Amino acid sequence: MILDLFKLTGKSAIVTGASRGIGEAMALALAEAGADVALVGRSDLDPVRKKIEALGRRAVCVNADLAKMDAIPAVMDATLKAFSKVDILVNNAGIVRRADILEFSEKDWDEVIDLNLKSCFFMAQAAARDMAKRKKGKIINISSLTYFWGGMRVPSYVASKAGVSQFTKAMCNELAPHGINVNAIAPGYIATDINKDLRADAGKSAELLSRIPAGRFGTPDDLKGMAVYMASDASNYMNGTTVLVDGGWMAR
């Protein structure tokens, strides 16, 4: 039956940036589909763990700052100790810094690139090494609408997300022979903490909404279906692509 392809029963997943917003929604979606989940983040992960356990799935909390490279082996060790394998990785952890191009600082550039791009690549690499042992795995990188559209006042964020989509292609080329699918989701304007100041500005909010055919900002739940699809056997022939979930922004 077709719906069986979307089941994640017996799978184990890592979701980074899982304490709230998109990361929380995707972690819950994977658990709802049957997966056990390692929750990774710098904030309190216990509320999400309790929600997953209420679904009858296992969850482990791993507090880590992924901007520091030594956190990645610790995340893998904790996940393998809990679940013995990594079938799915959702690379979601990220930050944004806003400033005019002429004033943008080296510190803001480096902090965004280190977390959004560098750690994303090496987290994917670490997960892929475990997946390659079984010749099967799903890596889902979180890119952005700004991969397609340059944005304003967020140069390091735009650069990092373009890099994520590009190394998604590069990883596909090398990891597909190992049975690993590497794809990316590019969310549009989703109502999360990362853009709450934009949404709170009535003028800016109206300007953004006028560009979105759906007529609303997205919610983290709008990304749950795509996450489950990319994590499941239903997407076995999808590889190296970035899929927009943007309410139609790029179509207008």
Describe the fold and architecture.
By secondary structure, the chain is an alpha/beta fold. It has a single domain, classed as Rossmann fold (3-Layer(aba) Sandwich), CATH 3.40.50. 42% of the residues lie in helices and 15% in strands. The protein contains eight helices and seven strands. Strands 3-2-1-4-5-6-7 form a seven-stranded parallel beta sheet, with helices on both faces. It is globular and about 50 Å long. The termini are far apart.
Mean pLDDT across every amino acid position: 97
Give the CATH class.
Alpha Beta
Shape: globular
**Quaternary arrangement of the chains shown?**
single chain
| Class from secondary-structure proportions | alpha/beta
SSE order: EHEHEHEHEHEHHHE
Short synopsis of the structure:
This protein has 252 residues and is of the alpha/beta class. It has helices at residues 21-32, 46-54, 71-83, 106-134, 155-175, 196-200, 202-210, 224-231, and strands spanning 12-16, 36-41, 59-63, 88-91, 137-142, 180-187, 242-245. Helix 1 packs across helix 8 (224-231) and helix 4 (106-134) runs parallel beside helix 5 (155-175).
